[in-house]
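Why do we care about 3D structure at all? Because function follows from shape, and shape follows, mostly, from sequence. That is the central idea of this module. The next example makes it concrete: a single protein chain, its amino acid sequence, and then its structure expressed as tokens.
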Amino acid sequence: MYSATEKLQKFFNLESERGYDNRAVVGGLDKILPSWEKEALTDGLSPSIIQTISAKLNVYNELSLEGRASTIQEILTMLSETDLSPTGESQTPAEALVSPSQPSQVKPAQEEITVRAKPARSASLSKPHSQGPAVGLNAPLTVLSGIGKRHAQTFQKLGVNTLADLMYYFPRRYDDYSQLKPINRLNYGEEVTVIATVHSASTRKTRGGKLQITEVTVTDGTGFLRLNWFNQPWLEPRLKPGTEIVLSGKIDMYLGRLIINNPEWEPLEQQHLHTNRIVPVYPLTARITQRWLRRIMFQTIPFWASRIKDFLPESIRTEARLMDIKTALKEIHFPESHDNLHDAQTRLAFDEIFLLQLGVLKQKYMYHAEEAKIYQISQEWLAQQIAQLPFELTTAQQRVLTEVREDLASGHPMNRLLQGDVGSGKTVIAAIAVAIVAQAGDQAAIMAPTSILAEQHYRSMLRLLTGHTETGEQLLAPEEIRLLVGDTSSSDKEEIRSGLKEGTIKVVVGTHALIEAPIEFQHLHLAVIDEQHRFGVTQRAKLRDKGQNPHILVMTATPIPRSLALTLYGDLDVSVMDEMPAGRLPIETHVLHPKERERGYQVVRSQIRAGHQAFMIYPLVENNEDDDSERKAAVDEHKRLQKEVFPDLNLGLLHGRLKPDEKESVMVDFRDGKYQILVSTSVVEVGVDIPNATVMLIEGANRFGLAQLHQFRGRVGRGEDHSYCLLIPETEDALENERLRVMTETNDGFILAERDLEQRGPGQFLGTQQSGFSELKMASLSNIKLIEIARNQAKKLFEKDPYLTEPEHQDLSRMVQRFWKGGSGDVS
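And the structure:
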């Protein structure tokens, strides 16, 4: 026999499946109350609970569909939070304060609700019951009517495991069916909602017999409209003549008549979830349909959103003019208007940026609170070092050098990001910083992502730090600067390890080998990290741990838009090198149509005749049968170019499937002149300095972002000769070619980076996903206005309560911890 509560749940499941039409029981749900109340009393349910449930079901028929869904959810929650005691008295704990949990996507935090679920019914009420699991927003989806184990497992593929996950599973887009139109005013191509009456319905098979078409004609008094459904014959008996329906879809045309294929529809008397409104469209997976998921959302969101506690202080919500979280969650799923939807999106996006800002500000605050060794130098000493340089510093270099010098003298660890185009002179700034530390007898480390780039920095340090001043003094001897990479000999590695531990080696340049366990420093006080986004959080933290609060200078040639600098790099002090050294020639850039490819080859050949070298970049390593033949691949093109186009030249091949030592070998051979042309994929984006390379030809240029194309372009023009960048898109597409034409208008990487962010979004903007914070789901990192508002609010709050210890900030503190997933180490 079923218990009274189990019977009630079965009726509710059926009611939910029927769309809350109050027909799960003949005559309505209130008709079961007389017999159910007696059973519930016998089962030991308290009279107060029975009375509450009866009162709700007595008015159930008078409620809207939304009200019915909420009522059923309330009753189910009440029953799940009820514990039947051995004495027959039910005990319902007071409802705990609820705020959202941190599920798989970015969302507000939640206090876990500590109430007891209804235990499994035992054979006898005289036996004690075990305490059930905690329920609330952390509860599994199976507590919802209509979701069993099978559906719950399917939801897991979408990253949705709990009620809170479901609430923060946002629509990917919205279809606006809110504008009703009469049939005689419909136009081809419109997406509309129509209220009409079924005039006729029939189902027929096509000639092949494999397809069934259900044809329905509807009218609203102004005209007739034909509707088609394919392979859905069960619709015919549901759409009987005289049935009033609401339908939504896109107007199409067939044989001169307006039709709608596969429209969404509902009976007129129902609450409109799929038509006549702004309809949410969710990301799906197998075995989940839009209509079913919308219904689940509709029965869940209104009830649970109202039980969320807003973690944002009211003062911030007021000052930033933000919607409260309860309303935002309701409107993001089922918006009443476009204005409400916009306000909900703004609130949820603000939450993400605000929490991100609090995290980076806290990290910046904590790091700057540490003590670091002070390095103070005289202006005379600095002038002597600058005088040794073979060139004059640009205004930008002088400004950044002043910032670095102030950091080193502050007594707190420097934590600075130095960004600037290829060739803007970042290495010189790093060398002077190393010199300041080395003159005090301490050690510095420079870490690069590849062996050949590390070797390039090693040569630069030897050139810049071992010269003699006018007084004959030498800052460092060559043996005090060493290179440590993967192929360094065992004997040299041992010698370097010993020298670093004893302090006889002052500067070491290397790859990730620098952070390996055997490496110990005597006094590491400066770490320079080049192309810092190529290193993970853990790797950077390991290098930092090699010293005692060392000063950190990270460098990148990837121009970073202001919005990203305020978010992903909000914990760093940012210096910008926005000026190129005097005499640097701009790179001449052209967009060639695919049919003009031969012109590009002629430019390559003419430059090679003049004694120069060329890069040729391709978007793929190699083609397979599934690839579009238009997409050119490095391996295939290398063979064709060598055999058909440049048979008299030596062509190298570089791609990501080569082993690290093979990549290094190819790049060294190209640098040393063994190859006139290097055919490569995007792995050459960050590489060595090849002053003799004067041509960069990029096939499939439309497949790369502007910032990445600018990085490719920076591989040439490193010497004193005129250089060229040739962009060849795959098709004649005017829109793509217009996007690429921006490359011909400017050599300013920052302008291109901003354009790239606008056109393509942040994505993997720096080539790798940043760690330390949840993926942003609602916020756009190109919305600089919202980012600045959130950052200003975060800074104001942080100045008042940096550790969020005030009582009114406890919910916010928990939210920040969950948002950052308890991560540690560097953000950037």
